[in-house]
């Protein structure tokens, strides 16, 4: 437990990433306030009532969110809100991004006006680099997003940097790779490990776009949460960090690991590849490795992480099945 405890606001903090980050911050002695439109993980925080405040709000209702910011004294804000997903159609993107971008711009202005010291924004290490000709991407690598989601995240990054330059906002932009782990929605459309586990539990086929040889950098979500805790405790100054493991694994390897762990025969159907999928994306994590003490850095192998996620899903069927 750390001595420099903070009061932290998590916007969109009741989902997969937010729940894991919140639990880690509570363990480290921080106080948290979670704002989200859904509180499906609320029971997880029952034992933390004195330090965890959960407020159900429409995150696109600026007045509601602004009132929370103005009526509290937060040290750090973590921005996890997004309405856009990687597979969004153009019409969906136009509708969702228009609202999300304007809302985020106004929130950043309000955060600065409230005198909040630190702002963490979750971008996307899996989409902002796009097809730039590189297999391993450093933070300064060229960025050519090939999905509207990647463009949206990059646009938000650039706005934050511009605003910080003109208004002295202290920020950290985090580009996570492909997180997986407890509290992830197994029955949605995002996160291959989670979706595959969900299909296995339902005894249904797993659909794979392409031949299964695309390479991704996967990070166990509890390792990611530990990194966020380290950044908040150690301080940062207008920085961008890749958050991953620096190692790439194919979809087919993930399927083999799941077969070995579950002992089940998995039915896989390969379909035509998507234009929004980059062939290889591995994150260079030298910057975060140099910035944080070793105890905060990723340590969970893909085999152990998927094994732990599978066991958690089996032992927490009520939480797992809430999204069915």
Task: Explain what this protein looks like in three dimensions.
This protein is α/β, with parallel strands linked by helices and 324 residues long. It is built from ten helices and 15 strands. The chain has a seven-stranded parallel sheet, with helices on both faces. It has a four-stranded mixed sheet with strand order 6-15-10-13. It has a two-stranded parallel sheet with strand order 8-11. Helix 1 packs across helix 6. The model has no long low-confidence stretch (mean pLDDT 91).
Helix content: 25-40%
Low-confidence residue ranges = none
The N- to C-terminal Cα distance equals: 37 Å
CATH topology type of the domain at 7-180 and 219-246 and 281-299: Rossmann fold
What is the residue-mean pLDDT, rounded to a whole number?
91
Side-by-side strand order of the widest sheet: 3-2-1-4-5-7-12
> Taking Cα atoms only, what radius of gyration do you get, to the nearest Å?
19 Å
Strand residues, percent: 15-25%
Please identify the structural class as seen in this structure: alpha/beta
Q: What's the CATH C level of the domain at 7-180 and 219-246 and 281-299?
A: Alpha Beta
Largest sheet: 7 strands, parallel
Please tally the β strands and state the result: 15
The string of secondary-structure elements, in order, is EHEEHEHEEHEEHEEEHEEHEEHHH
Summarize the structure.
This protein is of the alpha/beta class and 324 residues long. It has a domain at 7-180 and 219-246 and 281-299: 3-Layer(aba) Sandwich (Rossmann fold), CATH 3.40.50.720.
């Amino acid at each position: 437990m750390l001595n420099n405890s903070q009061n932290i606001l998590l916007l969109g903090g009741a989902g997969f990433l937010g729940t894991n980050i919140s639990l880690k911050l509570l363990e480290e002695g921080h106080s948290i306030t979670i704002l989200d439109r859904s509180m499906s993980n609320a029971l997880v925080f029952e034992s933390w009532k004195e330090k965890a405040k959960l407020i159900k709000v429409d995150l696109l209702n600026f007045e509601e969110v602004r009132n929370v910011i103005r009526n509290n004294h937060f040290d750090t804000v973590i921005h996890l809100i997004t309405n856009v997903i990687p597979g969004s159609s153009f019409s969906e993107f136009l509708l969702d991004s228009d609202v999300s971008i304007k809302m985020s711009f106004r929130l950043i202005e309000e955060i600065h006006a409230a005198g909040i010291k630190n702002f963490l924004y979750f971008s996307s290490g899996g989409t902002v680099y796009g097809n730039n000709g590189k297999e391993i991407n450093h933070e300064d690598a060229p960025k050519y997003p090939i999905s509207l989601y990647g463009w949206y995240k990059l646009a938000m990054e650039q706005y934050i940097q511009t605003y910080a330059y003109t208004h002295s906002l202290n920020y950290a932009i985090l580009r996570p790779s492909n997180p997986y782990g407890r509290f992830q929605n197994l029955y949605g459309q995002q996160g291959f490990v989670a979706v595959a586990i969900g299909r296995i539990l339902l005894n249904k086929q797993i659909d794979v776009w392409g031949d299964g040889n695309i390479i991704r950098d996967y990070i166990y979500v509890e390792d990611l949460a530990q990194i966020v805790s380290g950044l908040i405790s150690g301080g940062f100054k207008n920085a961008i960090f890749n958050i991953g493991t620096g190692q790439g694994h194919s979809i087919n390897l993930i399927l083999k690991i799941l077969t070995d762990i579950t002992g089940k025969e998995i039915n896989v159907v390969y379909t035509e590849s998507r234009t929004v999928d980059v062939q290889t994306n591995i994150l260079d994590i030298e910057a975060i490795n140099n910035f944080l003490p070793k105890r905060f850095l990723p340590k969970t192998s893909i085999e152990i992480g998927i094994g732990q996620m599978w066991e958690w899903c089996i032992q927490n069927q009520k939480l797992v099945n809430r999204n069915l």
